[in-house]
Amino acid sequence: MNPVIALVGRPNVGKSTLFNRLTKSRDAIVADFAGLTRDRHYGHGKQGSREFIVIDTGGFEPEASAGIYSEMAKQTRQAVAEADVVIFVVDARAGVSAQDHDIANYLRRLGKHCVLVANKAEGMLEGIQLSEFYELGLGQVHAVSAAHGQGIRSLVDLALGML
Ligand code: GDP
Ligand code: MG
């Protein structure tokens, strides 16, 4: 099976926008993904000759007030479990939040391959303005703009290169 990349992060950081950037077939039929749980948002991605599956984890967002464990419950945990690589999306403009820390702690404990991505970074000075994200303890922060299509190709290279 092709590698599976899960997009996680708190609401409104741009996961779905990134999902749409990464996938050509936005309405992929879930039945194509035999063996994967069916209640999330799957899509096919392709870069050069490399194909991959992307999971958007928008489903946990309505429970945002219920705390990280219920919020990331089920859908996100299952998506992460199915993923070969997790792309953890944060908001370059909003900065680090308590919820980002909770998600980072969760991901670090799992020990999965993880790429930290600061979205909405168009026009920003990476080295200076994104340095605070290093406190999440997930290594290097990778700047992208899902809306403007910046940094996407190297993000895919980075994510697939971990496998
Ligand atoms: P999700 O809740 O994490 O799935 O976030 P969405 O993809 O729904 O995006 C939330 C908001 O952020 C929307 O208004 C998007 O248009 C906006 N957004 C997404 N990506 C970018 C980006 O690269 N730059 C900027 N400035 N806004 C973005
Ligand atoms: Mg979404």
TrEMBL record:
Domain of life of the native organism: Bacteria
Transmembrane residue ranges: none
Coiled coil: none
Location of the EngA-type G domain: 3-163
Binding residue positions for GTP 1: 9-16, 56-60, 119-122
Similarity comment text for this entry: Belongs to the TRAFAC class TrmE-Era-EngA-EngB-Septin-like GTPase superfamily. EngA (Der) GTPase family.
Assembly description: Associates with the 50S ribosomal subunit.
Task of the protein: GTPase that plays an essential role in the late steps of ribosome biogenesis.
Protein name: GTPase Der
